[in-house]
């Protein structure tokens, strides 16, 4: 065998893994931006604009203070933004054996490249979150100079958090208490951002200085640790797997990702509800449990319900067609979301052994979807009755007609 | 000089598993860490390969201290884990090239040794295979080839015979003996004591995180009032 057979060099290892991951992300993003998702995005964007316009006309001060819900929204939005752009190391389990002797190269080469790339990613994420928040900032009393300073604060804080993540990978002491370390990071980050939104020039200046100091100290700490620190592989691999799992879980919302489709959570709190729903048919019991415990099942339907309700509450009361259109689309998306459960259950040998009558299974499955989408419609209607009143009847009638239409003409054809 | 472990204290999240543990593995010797589950064997190995937080004591290899010279220490080490761990996306040959490169060793001078090992474990001709096509035993053989292909001063093996066929077990014993003859210190854990007495120079019996016995197979048997023929019954 020739030496040329091998193309990966240690100093190129990070770049090679990063490129592979980016290629994979690109592949999944192509699947994400399909027709259905683009329609959903357009509606969500339209809904956000409606919510924004309707909020602009209202007095949003909090309990008659100088603070408004705009500030609160800005704070929450930027805090959520800080969750994005984490350290991407792409470490793998086999590194613990094959790269254990290359610690020097890993700490001073591989991790350095990982940090640089992650900083770039973090910068892109934070900029995107900040730019999206500009319409909110416009409704606060922050000047544009202050807004720019706020952006700097976010960048400093995120840099400090990234440096902290690197430090945790090369210090066995920090690695022992990952949760405590993360909590300290987050507490400091959130207090800093909150201080900034306090709308006081002195507090603002202190927050800016504090964020800079936070980043500086973390950079210094990591540099100091790198002198004698070696990669704590257990922690490094766990962190990389967690990041990979987050990516795959996101992709698995709209595409088949190997090893991700069967992810389940116990969700003990749903036991009472499952017992209450207690179906006589064993197949129905199986399916409802699969949907309730899957990470891409009823939890997503619940989130869709919240988003849908917010959208409907923001719609102009005179636009009846919009209420009907959004309701129909939500029902369709919900059914489409749950449809793959039939095929996935069929792929399990047990399903075939235990339930051999295909016609009964198809009937039971479509009945479950009909029941769930009826509950979905009912929940939307109740929310509208409570908060809006007028359009509840439109939502209820459109919902039930769409349910029947989607169930009989779409679902039943798809599972045959 | 070999491996020196002095007054080692280690554990997890505030729980001390090993306290005041001292032993050595001289160059050219094969030493087996034995003990019941939970005695601290894995924790000890983890510390020796530099994956764990030292709460006290020191570990050094040929004079290189793990805490103050971690990079130099780890360069001298090869490790075979209990379960094979491979990269899904790398071929067998790519794994071996990577291992040599991580140890800073030249492909050209070491590749004939690699080919010899591949042939010994009947992996020749499979250099371009991905791990998905290997059985568990074959994966374990890849780990062995990778570890024996590099020049190391300390070879650490966690349960060496798991998943290996009888022929591969014999070859592994021969390789360990050869490695020791060439001056490498070999530290391993095993539960197969009767088999171990064929190739192990010294046993370290771990009980509750401490060495309760150190010596030859005969001495180990005597210390537990057993005969040398029934080491597998040591704990019964």
TrEMBL record, chain A:
The chain crosses the membrane at residues 37-55, 67-85, 117-137, 180-199, 297-315, 321-339, 368-387, 393-411. The keyword Cell membrane does not apply. Keywords: Membrane, Transmembrane, Transmembrane helix. InterPro entries: EcsB_ABC (IPR010288). This is ABC transporter permease. It comes from the Bacteria.
Automatic annotation (TrEMBL), chain B:
Residues 3-233 form the ABC transporter domain. One of its GO terms (molecular function) is ATP binding. InterPro entries: AAA+_ATPase, ABC_transporter-like_ATP-bd, ABC_transporter-like_CS, ABC_Transporter_VariousFunc, P-loop_NTPase. It comes from the Bacteria. The keyword Nucleotide-binding applies. Keywords: ATP-binding, Nucleotide-binding, Transport. The keyword ATP-binding applies. This is ABC transporter ATP-binding protein. It comes from Fructobacillus broussonetiae. The lineage of its organism: Bacteria, Bacillati, Bacillota, Bacilli, Lactobacillales.
């Amino acid at each position: 065998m020739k030496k040329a057979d091998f193309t990966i060099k240690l100093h190129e290892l990070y770049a090679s893994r990063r490129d592979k991951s980016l290629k994979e992300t690109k592949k999944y993003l192509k699947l994400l931006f399909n027709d259905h998702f683009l329609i959903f995005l357009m509606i969500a964007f339209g809904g956000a604009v409606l919510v924004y316009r309707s909020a602009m006309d209202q007095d949003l001060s909090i309990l008659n203070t100088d603070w408004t819900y705009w500030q609160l929204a800005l704070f929450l939005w930027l805090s959520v933004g800080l969750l994005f752009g984490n350290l991407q190391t792409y470490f793998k389990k086999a590194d613990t054996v094959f790269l254990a002797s290359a610690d020097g190269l890993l700490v001073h080469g591989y991790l350095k490249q990982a940090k640089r790339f992650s900083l770039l990613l973090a910068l892109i994420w934070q900029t995107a979150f900040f730019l999206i928040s500009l319409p909110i900032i416009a409704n606060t009393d922050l000047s544009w100079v202050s807004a720019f300073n706020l952006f700097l604060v976010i960048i400093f804080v995120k840099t400090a958090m990234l440096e902290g993540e690197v430090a945790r990978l090369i210090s066995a002491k920090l690695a022992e208490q990952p949760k405590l370390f993360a909590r300290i990071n987050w507490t400091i980050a959130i207090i800093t951002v909150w201080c900034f939104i306090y709308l006081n020039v002195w507090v603002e200046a202190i927050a800016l200085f504090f964020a800079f100091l936070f980043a500086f100290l973390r950079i210094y700490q990591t540099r100091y640790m790198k002198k004698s620190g070696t990669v704590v592989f257990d922690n490094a691999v766990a962190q990389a797997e967690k990041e990979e799992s987050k990516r795959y879980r996101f992709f698995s919302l709209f595409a088949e990702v190997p090893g991700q489709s069967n992810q389940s959570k116990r969700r003990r709190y749903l036991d009472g509800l499952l017992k209450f729903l207690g179906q006589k048919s064993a197949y129905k019991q199986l399916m409802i449990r699969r949907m309730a415990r899957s990470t891409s099942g009823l939890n997503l339907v619940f989130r869709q319900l919240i988003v849908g309700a917010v959208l409907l509450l923001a719609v102009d009361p005179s636009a009846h067609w919009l209420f009907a259109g959004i309701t129909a689309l939500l029902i369709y998306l919900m059914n489409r979301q749950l449809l793959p459960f039939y095929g996935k259950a069929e792929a399990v040998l047990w399903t075939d052994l235990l339930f051999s009558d295909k016609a009964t299974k198809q009937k039971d499955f479509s009945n479950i979807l009909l029941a769930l989408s009826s509950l979905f419609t009912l929940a939307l209607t109740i929310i509208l009755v409570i908060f809006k009143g007028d359009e509840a009847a439109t939502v209820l009638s459109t919902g039930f007609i769409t349910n029947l239409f989607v169930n009989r003409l779409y679902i039943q054809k798809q599972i045959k | 000089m070999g491996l020196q472990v002095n007054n080692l204290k280690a554990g997890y999240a505030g729980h001390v598993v090993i306290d005041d543990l001292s032993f050595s593995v001289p160059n050219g010797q094969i030493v087996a860490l034995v003990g019941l589950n939970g005695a601290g064997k894995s924790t000890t190995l983890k510390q020796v390969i530099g994956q764990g937080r030292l709460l006290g004591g020191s570990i050094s290899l040929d004079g290189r201290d793990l805490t103050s010279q971690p990079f130099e220490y780890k360069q001298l080490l090869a490790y075979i884990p209990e379960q094979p761990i491979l990269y899904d996306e790398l071929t067998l040959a790519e794994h071996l090239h990577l291992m040599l490169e991580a140890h800073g060793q030249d492909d050209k001078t070491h590749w004939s040794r690699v080919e010899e090992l591949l042939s010994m474990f009947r992996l020749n001709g499979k250099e371009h295979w991905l791990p998905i096509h290997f059985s568990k035993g074959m994966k374990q053989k890849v780990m062995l080839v990778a570890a024996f292909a590099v020049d190391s001063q300390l070879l650490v093996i966690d349960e060496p015979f798991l998943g290996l066929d009888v022929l591969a077990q014999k070859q592994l014993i021969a390789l360990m003996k050869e490695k020791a003859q060439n001056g490498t210190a070999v530290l391993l854990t095993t539960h197969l004591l009767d088999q171990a007495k064929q190739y192990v120079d010294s046993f370290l019996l771990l009980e509750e995180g401490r060495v309760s016995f150190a010596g030859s197979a005969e001495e180990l048997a005597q210390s537990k009032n057993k005969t040398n023929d029934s080491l597998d019954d040591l704990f019964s």
